[in-house]
Design brief:
Elements (H helix, E strand, L loop, with lengths): L1 H17 L1 H6 L2 H10 L16 E4 L3 H10 L7 E4 L16 H4 L8 E2 L16 E2 L21 H9 L7 H11 E4 L15 E4 L6 H12 L14
Parallel strand pairs: 1-2, 5-6
Antiparallel strand pairs: 3-4
The structure holds flavin-adenine dinucleotide (FAD).
Flavin-adenine dinucleotide binds next to α4.
Pfam families: GMC_oxred_N
InterPro entries: FAD/NAD-bd_sf, GMC_OxRdtase, GMC_OxRdtase_N
GO molecular function: flavin adenine dinucleotide binding; oxidoreductase activity, acting on CH-OH group of donors
């Protein structure tokens, strides 16, 4: 029952992105109440042990990867804890739905202190400060865009005394986790080919996207791989 309802909603959302008026037909309240009522994935019942070799608090991307890697050793016991809910098939998988999930309890929903110069259109001049809550962490509500930092940030962290955090230190690790399928920059030496994380271009480009890139180039910006250390 839930699967077919959610499929209809997902389809409506996709169409809503294309045909703007459709959005107004979809009530945010209805969707969020659907999400609240939806059945989470059944992870199976496991009996808690008296003790564990590793206890990981927080099942965000970091905690999940850590638990996955540690539990590859069958002799090791791992407990992964999260304060939030489990995943809901389709809803928590699609980046398209992320912004909607940010309106549910998949988001801690923090607000900043009152701002003097920002968020002036928001209640009390307080910015929304999204932070994912549940199995998947902020990847439940994020946009699933693969973005490495700028090399200067990493080098700054290394200079501040964090050994192993320079761009040259982290680049081999970025490459190791990645299987890149990137049209224009895949062979530039900054990408991996056999990691577990698949990274690829959006499968199509619209005329507007092409025009956007062209006009940025005309304005003097370089068309570059923003994951190769320099973002601009
Ligand atoms: C709106 C938004 C959009 C984003 N877009 C992108 C993007 O497009 N691309 C990108 O690469 N990154 C994006 N990010 C950033 C990315 O999601 C985070 O860098 C990433 O999720 C961090 O992973 P993490 O495991 O370190 O922490 P988190 O994802 O924050 O996970 C922390 C986990 O800990 C749990 N937790 C917290 N407190 C407790 C507690 N006391 N007990 C038990 N569990 C607890 C939480 O429920 C959560 O599951 C975005 C982030 C946000 C908020």
């Amino acid at each position: 029952m839930f699967r077919s309802r959610s499929a209809v909603i997902s389809l409506a959302l996709i169409l809503g992105g294309i045909v703007q008026p459709t959005v107004s037909l979809i009530s945010l309240g209805n969707i969020t109440s659907l999400i609240y009522d939806a059945k989470e994935i059944n992870y199976g019942r496991h009996t808690l042990l008296d003790s564990y070799d590793f206890i990981i608090v927080g099942a965000g991307p970091a905690g999940c990867v850590l638990a996955n890697r540690l539990s590859e050793d069958p002799t090791v016991t791992v407990l992964l804890l999260d304060i939030g809910r489990g995943e809901i098939p389709l809803f928590t998988d699609s980046p398209l739905v992320g912004p909607l999930l940010a309106s549910t309890d998949y988001n801690f929903g923090y607000e900043t202190e009152k701002q003097q110069n920002g968020c002036l259109g928001l209640r009390g001049h307080r910015c929304s400060w999204a932070h994912g809550r549940g199995v998947g962490g902020s990847s439940i509500i994020n946009n699933v865009i693969f973005t490495r930092g700028n090399r200067r940030d990493y080098d700054g962290w290394a200079r501040a005394g964090n050994e192993g955090w320079s761009w040259n230190d982290v680049l081999p690790l970025f490459k190791r986790i990645e299987t890149a399928n990137i049209r224009d920059f895949g062979d530039n030496g900054f990408h991996g080919t056999d990691g577990r994380l698949s990274v690829e271009d959006a499968p199509f480009r619209t005329d507007i996207a092409r025009a956007f890139v062209k006009s940025a180039e005309a304005a003097g910006y370089r068309y570059l791989d923003y994951n190769a250390g320099d973002n601009l």
